Amino acid sequence: MLLLALDTATPAVTVALHDGRDVIASSSQVDARRHGELLLPAIDRVLAEAGLRLDAVTGVVAGIGPGPYTGLRVGLMTAETFGLALGVPVYGVCTLDGLAYAAGLEGPFVVATDARRKEVYWARYADSRTRVTDPAVDRPADIAEQVADLPAVGAGALLYPETFPKAHEPEHVSAAALARLAAQKLAAGEELPAPRPLYLRRPDAQVPKNYKVVTPK
């Protein structure tokens, strides 16, 4: 097994290689505006660090969000393209699940990432591998009563300490955690979701309401 894992659902552009035993190379850079520029060089970098070629990859793992439309599609389209070119399966992993796994907490806790617009993408977990609610997008004040007494991880939790008073790192997801989680699930025979994006809300770009169709004469 050689899994190539990547995620662009948060400001982190993160890539890792997992050889079936553990992560053998990884790279993470935080830049919310340069996912498209940074992802392919990061993939080249981890392959070079591991001394391997792209054609050695036997599966691709992609973070499916939730996340903003533009950043998220960069990683998913790259993963799908590699899967088609290499003829290997592409697996999806919820980005929040990757953060939960990296946190390594055993009791109930919350993962929250920054959804912008003064909102967070979030979910509750029973432990680092068990999500108990579907991912959602909400204003922090609207969920304060549900999360105030729980430890929390992620950039969204750190951004709103009044809602998440027990917030701590990790701040962003790492592809290393995604790869380890995916490898464990595959080894256990668990089915991973298809690499389809979790947007949770409509994109910012909208067709104007008074848009007029111009037809040639």
Strand content: 25-35%
Order of helices and strands: EEEHEHEHEEEEHEHEH
Outline, from the CA principal axes? Answer: globular
Tally of DSSP helical segments: 6
The biggest beta sheet, please? Answer: 6 strands, mixed
- Poorly predicted regions are none
Radius of gyration: 18 Å
Helix proportion? 25-40%
Overall number of strands: 11
Structure classification: alpha/beta
**N-to-C terminal Cα separation, in Å?**
60 Å
Global mean pLDDT: 93
Give the topology, please:
Blueprint: E1 3-7, E2 12-18, E3 23-30, H1 35-50, E4 59-63, H2 69-86, E5 90-93, H3 95-103, E6 109-116, E7 119-127, E8 130-131, E9 136-138, H4 140-147, E10 152-153, H5 155-159, E11 167-168, H6 175-187
Parallel strand pairs: 1-4, 4-5, 6-10, 10-11
Antiparallel strand pairs: 1-2, 2-3, 6-7, 7-8, 7-9
Helix pairs in contact: 1-2, 3-6
